[in-house]
Amino acid sequence: MPSVLIVDDLLSIHEMLEAVIQPTGYSTAFATDGEKALARYKTEKYDLVLADIDMKPMDGITLLRQLKAYDPTAVVIIMTAYASTESAVQALKFGAFDYLQKPFRVDDLIATLKRALEYRRFSVERPAEAAAAAGAVAGVRDIESALAGTGAAHKKLIQQIKKLAAVRTPVLLQGESGTGKSTIAEILHAGSAPADAPFVRIDCGQSSEANFRNGLLGENGSGGEWLSQARGGTLLLLNIEKLAQPLQRELVGVLRTHAQSFRLICTSGEDLERLTEEGKFDDELFYRVASLPVVLPALRERPEDIPALVKHFIARASNPNFDSKLIEFSPDALSALKSYPWPGNITDLAQVIGKIAASTETRVVGVDQLPLRIKDLGGWPKLADYLALQEKHYIEQVLHACRGNKEQAARVLGIEVARVG
After folding, report:
1. What is the pLDDT of residue 172?
2. pTM for this one?
């Protein structure tokens, strides 16, 4: 029988909740404040915690934070009497499963408990059992071969992914285009879902508002066909920052009802927290999708990984003249690759290496075989020099318009006469 620890400083609330919860198949235990609840949880452990936010000496938010610090898998529902959602969003920020605003209907309470229990079984217990049975997280054992690299940032990312694959809580992957967000999403799916589990991929930047509303939100927020397809597997929402704000708010309601039935992974090409602070992204949606954020570094920030990535992409190529695994890049060519800023990141590098490895007629690739934009990178002027040239040209144009009158040109430009030349 699933157990619920109810935390509220009013005994009348205990009695009311016991009367409506126990008949639905849950056992209940009680604590009158956060400190007692924390001590009781540590000794007895519970499937769910239902806690009021307004308590003394330890309030519900503090209890939530300490519970999650002690047990990251704790599933906590916060009860709040405030009309504002500010406290509820704060609870989501610190890892609450959901919130209930008093006075709430009994049906809403039971439905929330049911969703929370389903979430616990789906996101905590089942992945842990699968990992223990396999002795390792399935689908992630070969992650090093899927994501090549040798640097410290890369090794940290590998460890993050291995930990994330062991749970099914929402993950937010942030990074520039081409940094590997989709690849990592596929790895997480493979590591935390059965082999035949569905993997539904939706691009929020490509789907029209009508398609998104029909496919994901459904009628009256009841959930659409895409949610049904993702059940038991993974739902990947690409470029979630591009979702229109009215749809963001509607998505919150859908996730409250359905998110426990699939693994949610979102990607963003922008800093979603900054967008939230600027009021450009829904704050409640942010905390529902960003409970486990991962920032993927740009390739220019990890040049030490380029030799390993080059070798990785060479091995995937097919060359009519050589065994592709025998192809290598000269030290000068590698140096040029490491110096290039790679605006398209790993995707850009993969395309360049793949094309060269498939067409080279020499086993060792030299600088001369690199694209012009890479091998002649040193010929580009530094930004400061370029801006100085632009400024000089502009001053000359204004001076010409002022018929050589430096004082008049200086007034037009708003600079000192000496800078006019």
Report:
1. 94
2. 0.73
